[in-house]
Amino acid sequence: MAARAAYIYCGVMDLLTVGVIYCFAVEIFFLGMWLFYGRREYAFFEHARRKATFLCPRCNKLYAAPAGAETCACPRCGHENTRLKY
């Protein structure tokens, strides 16, 4: 009877070990997904987020253009403006 009790106890420990390993595997999987999709979103949309801001003194229109532009024509009146510096 003592041998059977040792066998059952050993089976419970194995199930516990499998459960802990499964929980860690799921945690690592979701951490990997979070990192992968976070970096992918950053790479895809960072270029679109970068904008230079302009203010036209002639018509008082605030507008944006792609990053790197030092001057840009106003979409309302066509006046050439320099970008705002913060």
Alpha carbon gyration radius: 30 Å
Structural class: alpha+beta
User: Strands of the largest sheet, in order across it?
Assistant: 1-2
The N- to C-terminal Cα distance equals: 81 Å
The major β-sheet equals: 2 strands, antiparallel
Count of beta strands: 4
Parts with pLDDT < 50 across at least 5 consecutive residues: none
Helix content: 55-70%
Could you say which overall geometry the principal axes of the C-alpha atoms support?
A: rod-shaped
Overall mean pLDDT: 83
Kindly report the oligomeric state of this protein.
single chain
Number of domains: 2
- Please count the helical segments: 1
Strand % is 15-25%
Order of helices and strands: HEEEE
